[in-house]
């Protein structure tokens, strides 16, 4: 007999953007902003983030939300960013001519962006505790 507990897997949708012309280091800064947030809130954060990498990350997030809604019939209001990560893609190598016949290498880095969204059940609204209502302070007349 094993003591394994059955963990219910939440439905999730994945979207990827590959060969994005942005350095992985800069894209990771943006991806850290949206991890663990609700999908709508994450889109709003990306909309106002000043980094240029926020545009491709927002597109991948919107694509993951559309995949969840259209392919898995999930409610868009229950979606949360469960995982988001950036892998390094191939580097384009270019040369910049320098003085006295030298050439410096320029590395144009690319990224693979992956965003996973999962549908979490909506939390039940909290009910007010039964009992007396707090009374207003009485002023002396």
From TrEMBL:
InterPro entries per the UniProt record, alphabetical: Ribosomal_uL22, Ribosomal_uL22_bac/chlpt-type, Ribosomal_uL22_bac/org-type, Ribosomal_uL22_CS, Ribosomal_uL22_sf
Chain positions covered by the region annotation Disordered: 112-141
GO terms under cellular component: ribosome
Pfam families, per database record: Ribosomal_L22 (PF00237)
Domain of life: Bacteria
Family matches, as SUPFAM superfamilies: Ribosomal protein L22
Record field: compositional bias (Basic and acidic residues): 115-127
Biased composition (Basic residues): 128-141
Keywords: Ribonucleoprotein, Ribosomal protein, RNA-binding, rRNA-binding
NCBIfam families per UniProt: rplV_bact
PANTHER family: CHLOROPLAST 50S RIBOSOMAL PROTEIN L22-RELATED, LARGE RIBOSOMAL SUBUNIT PROTEIN UL22M
Family the UniProt entry places it in: Belongs to the universal ribosomal protein uL22 family.
Function, in words: The globular domain of the protein is located near the polypeptide exit tunnel on the outside of the subunit, while an extended beta-hairpin is found that lines the wall of the exit tunnel in the center of the 70S ribosome. This protein binds specifically to 23S rRNA; its binding is stimulated by other ribosomal proteins, e.g., L4, L17, and L20. It is important during the early stages of 50S assembly. It makes multiple contacts with different domains of the 23S rRNA in the assembled 50S subunit and ribosome.
Subunit structure: Part of the 50S ribosomal subunit.
Protein name per its UniProtKB record: Large ribosomal subunit protein uL22
Origin species: Actinophytocola gossypii
């Amino acid at each position: 007999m094993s003591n394994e507990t059955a963990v219910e897997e939440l439905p999730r949708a994945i979207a990827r953007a590959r060969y994005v012309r942005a350095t992985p280091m800069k894209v990771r800064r943006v991806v850290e902003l949206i991890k663990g947030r609700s999908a709508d809130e994450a889109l709003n954060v990306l909309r106002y983030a000043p980094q240029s990498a926020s545009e491709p990350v927002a597109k991948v997030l919107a694509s993951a939300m559309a995949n969840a809604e259209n392919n898995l019939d999930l409610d868009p209001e229950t979606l949360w960013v469960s995982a988001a990560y950036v892998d390094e893609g191939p580097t384009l190598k270019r040369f910049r001519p320098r003085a006295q016949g030298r050439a410096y290498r320029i590395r144009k880095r690319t990224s693979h962006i992956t965003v996973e969204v999962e549908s979490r059940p909506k939390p039940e609204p909290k009910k007010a505790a039964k009992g007396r209502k707090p009374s207003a302070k009485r002023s002396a007349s």
